[in-house]
User: What shape does this take?
Amino acid sequence: MELKSNVPTGPIEQAWDKHKFELKLVNPANKRKYNIIVVGSGLAGGAAAASLGELGYNVQCFCYQDSPRRAHSIAAQGGINAAKNYHNDGDSVYRLFYDTVKGGDFRAREYNVYRLAQVSVNIIDQCVAQGVPFAREYGGLLDNRSFGGAQVSRTFYARGQTGQQLLLGAYQALERQIGLGQVKMYPRTEMLDLVVVDGVARGIVARDMMTGKIDVHMGDAVILATGGYGNVFYLSTNAKGCNVTATWRAHKRGALFANPCYTQIHPTCIPVAGDYQSKLTLMSESLRNDGRIWVPKQKGDQRPPNTIPENERDYYLERRYPSFGNLVPRDIASRAAKHECDEGRGVGPSGLGVYLDFADAIKRLGAQKIQERYGNLFEMYERITGENPYLVPMRIYPASHYTMGGLWVDYNLMSTIPGLFVLGEANFSDHGANRLGASALMQGLADGYFVIPYTIGNYLATAKPAKVAANCLEAKEAVSNIECITKKLLNANGTRTVDSFHRELGKIIWDYCGMARNAAGLQKALGLIPQLRDEFWKNVKVLGSNDEFNQSLEKAGRVADFFELGELMCIDALDRDESCGGHFREEYQTPEGEAQRDDEKFSYVAAWEYKGAGQSPVLNKEPLTFNYVHPSQRSYK
Amino acid sequence: MKLTLHIWRQKNAQDQGRMVRYEVPNANEHMSFLEMLDVLNESLIEKGEEPVAFDHDCREGICGMCGMMINGKAHGGFPGTTVCQLHMRHFKDGDELWLEPWRAKAFPVVKDLAVNRGALDRIIAAGGYITAPTGSAPDGNAIPVRKTNSDLAMDAAACIGCGACVAACPNAAAALFTGAKISHLGLLPQGQAERDKRAIAMVQQMKLEDFANCTNIGECVAACPKEIKLEVIARMNRDYLKAAISERPMELKEVSG
Assistant: This one.
């Protein structure tokens, strides 16, 4: 399949403006004739649904939660990047672009990233106008802080609740459109299949989670903004409901899945405490601004942290990366922590943890300032661990957090199925092989507020989709496909719970396709996953029926898709014989243990094509070219 | 630790519902409360009994999806804590606990401990926003905001919409929820243009839903996992009263669906 990225030509600085001018418009009177389906109501979906409603389109928005305000964007703590240069410290659109391309380890599309950096400034303006209570200085102007992977202060924040406040901004704009009747909201409704008619996305099949009713919703375009697939690991910082079902089932209908092996393991999470653990809690990366990360120099040192003298501590990030210190990008910080623990210097009961210490910051700034900056995070930590981080260093360990891979999209955010657009974490486009902190919120809102409103108009004006009835053959086929899956899950009548399968699958993926991978391990995983998947379909136990609120059934469908995705992750990781960003193949590292890219062979996007059950997926390559940021070995030393 | 749970089981909104007794022999102090319920549910499924339905999502106290009454207290009654962040170290071996869904006419039960809180969304849809269509915003620093106001707005904006305030209120009023949004937006210069209209529209919608009036009891504040202050209700009342006098009468449309 030929992948047409539709990236504009000419100088990158003017590319988006030029492209916008060339995009066709839909006149205001015609907008109301178009129905647009938006799946997901987080920063990308919520912003898109609200903005498209404001433009006059008829929008139907779906989310699995009981309210659009609960989408997992809400959990982002640290902040959102924007190249405002309010601090006169040398920031610019070009620098944010440069940092993001470099941070992504030269595996992202330059033109997409430049556009992201450009619209970042509009996002802040938009959010301020909506009433997002960003932190401010006494003079009343906006405050900033610095974040991993950058040497300037460009991160805007609202206490430790930036994601929540940004989402509430988008949610309130969305509720306004709902109140005006411009958007119809379907909460507690889960997309289960995509309706493709004549090769074009024309609707979705969705289940009303309260009644189990399966309905077809038709539209002139479909937008998926359904987040990432980090829950494939079972334990992750994602919300329990986060899943890959919408994007995976679209993949099975023909949308290519790009770079599934690019997953981000976040360095600062609370370590696992026991087998019953249901999720991991992230401590914002912003903590690395003031906290210092260390382990005891001596292996197996069991002394309480405060009694270990300064000269017996190893501040390993400051030692190994003197210019970025504790603010190195996430992939590097995570691997460094894993390295220390693998060598036996880890702390805590499991030995899988490192200290994040605020003693120096408290001495320098006072406990009050620290409380102002991180109060709610400290509280959250104490609530979970029972330890007071003002007195005892926090214990942290890396955990699955974000997925850079996702459905392949062109510059217009359209997938390989015409009429199917993919926004936010659900697409693959902007972060390459590693995402910098405070960039997920930026990308979600950029896609939703400032990209899709332009590009979807061009699609509708060009394609002029004709009306298709909800009882067309393709829709009926999709419905019976879903009914068949549901029946199979309910009738398996086995002995094991859905969670027990999910936990076992997650362990396989974490062990063999987690922070570090190698060919032997990946091959092993590719043997284990199909075995477990076969057992799942034969031996899963899902009680109750389809015609009711049935949380086990919901979970079972999602886990079924995680099995297939997990396998593709391993195939992709095995195929990419290099290390880059979050994808670290142990065979490919520099003598200092850093990721070793192979630009000659692997400077491309790996976009996988589904070929049917039991068939090997087919790899399609979109070559990446770098005309502005010259690929180099990333160095944060 | 060994626990005895009495859990409200109700198949759907039409079902009568009843308390059912369960034993959890294998809880431990590091589990969160919801993880303890996961353990119970796993054992129920293995025995062929339907698991207990309860809402939850982020499990880090920010999405507002979870919530239940534990021994009559919303979220268990620990200060500033959602039930997903409540850990079993606060309980002891042999404890007997009663778990019920949020009790309020405006929140019909979906199943077991899960309820429908759509009424809260409709209050926001009625006026809980600043009209600022995408693309129309001036530079972020064009409007300075007093730090004290910005901080107070943030305090109010911290509401997660979980509904504990309603469940804890003897009147089942939604005054803390509504007051928090009116305060958040009314404290900011960007929110002034619609301040009167917002107060009238949101209070009106609150009354159209099945929420009763606030009588300043303050149970809501004690139950709020984000520790929203009672003063947001005073702000709401003041804005509403002021708006009722100064604002020309306008047509308000009920939000439905």
